[in-house]
Amino acid sequence: TESVVLVPTEKALLAIEVANEERRVKTTVREKYKWENAEAETGNVFLAGDILYTVSRTHVNAYFVLEEMEARLKERIQNKPEDLAAYSELADLYHKATRFDDALAQLDKGLKLIEKSRDANAAAVTLELQRKKFDALYELGRSVEGSAKADLEKAYIHYGKALEIARLPGQAEVLPVMALRAMAENAAKRNLIELAVEHYHQIIAQDGDAVYAYVAESSSKARLFAQARIEELKKKHPGCYDKLEAQAKAAFEKAANDVAQLEALLAQYPNSQSCGSALLKLAQLSLEKNPDQARFHATLFLSRYSQAESAAMALSLLAAAYEKSQLLGPAKDML
């Protein structure tokens, strides 16, 4: 354009805006297209429509010019305000340019447009735009959190809004886990440890069966990841689990001999001491009719609470379960 000069360097292509201010030339680097392979990409620069080309001796490379694409999409919307695809494409463009606030504005316009539409594909398009809105909110949170002037509270709000989108019907089951993990880690950074634990507990209680890749090239059920993080925080910050421990204790007392409620406690409060009490209770209740199940619960108790005072009771139950299963050798070993 008249005010932008493209300057290829050894490392990148710079889009420099030139302006006259008080008889002085002011230059500002507006965009930077970093070369992936400088030797192959650096060369003559050509602009055709909304595509930028660099030509070297061995390669021709094409790059989209954001300003040109933005102008064309805005013109499409101006000429045809009901063009839903244009809003979605413009949001994608802004997202790619890390202009997440602008992306959200276009997605909201698109969602409002769908509300007035009677399109047969409205439901599918709504899901698509909601997913894009989740991505924009999530990335906006990460951007705010990771900037030089990090605003952790503001980032937390963005993650919370992303969680609201993730809870809408039809969205991928892993989205709430992503949002809750971000909220938990954000809370921990602000030294709000109890809040962090609460968010990890939400993953266990509400989204525990979602398969989640918490590290590169590895995935497991989200509850396992959240349970491990709670244990780490409990070791560093004694007392951070007290509120949930009290809830687990109340749930155990309410369950009494109800097997279903005891099993629900195991699923919802795996980090609690009451989880051990529930395992022992389940072993006792199943000993006569299902010794294999009693053996399972007693073994699980010992794997988690081997140093507990009630470990002797678990060993006794395990021995009895072996005996009822006619496994006399292991039964004698337990005694």
Tell me what the structure shows.
With 335 residues, the chain is α+β, with helices and mostly antiparallel strands. It contains 15 helices and eight strands. Strands 1-2-3 form a three-stranded antiparallel beta sheet, with no helix packed on it. A hairpin with a 2-residue loop joins strand 4 and strand 5. Helix 4 packs antiparallel against helix 5 (122-146), helix 5 runs antiparallel to helix 6 and helix 11 (259-268) packs antiparallel against helix 12 (273-286). The termini are far apart.
Briefly say what this structure is.
The protein has 15 helices and eight strands. By secondary structure, it is of the alpha+beta class.
Offer a few descriptive terms.
alpha+beta; 15 helices; 61% helix; 3-stranded antiparallel beta sheet; 335 residues; elongated
User: Unreliable runs, pLDDT <50, ≥5 residues?
Assistant: none
Number of E-type strands: 8
Question: How many helical stretches?
Answer: 15
Distance between the termini: 86 Å
Give the arrangement of secondary structure elements:
Blueprint lengths: L3 E5 L3 E10 L2 E11 L3 H4 L2 E5 L2 E5 L4 E5 L1 H14 L4 H13 L3 H17 L5 H25 L5 H15 L8 H15 L3 H15 L3 E5 L2 E4 H15 L5 H14 L3 H10 L4 H14 L4 H14 L6 H14 L3 H7 L1
Antiparallel strand pairs: 1-2, 2-3, 4-5, 5-6, 7-8
Helix pairs in contact: 2-3, 3-4, 4-5, 5-6, 5-7, 6-7, 7-8, 8-9, 10-11, 10-12, 11-12, 12-13, 13-14, 14-15
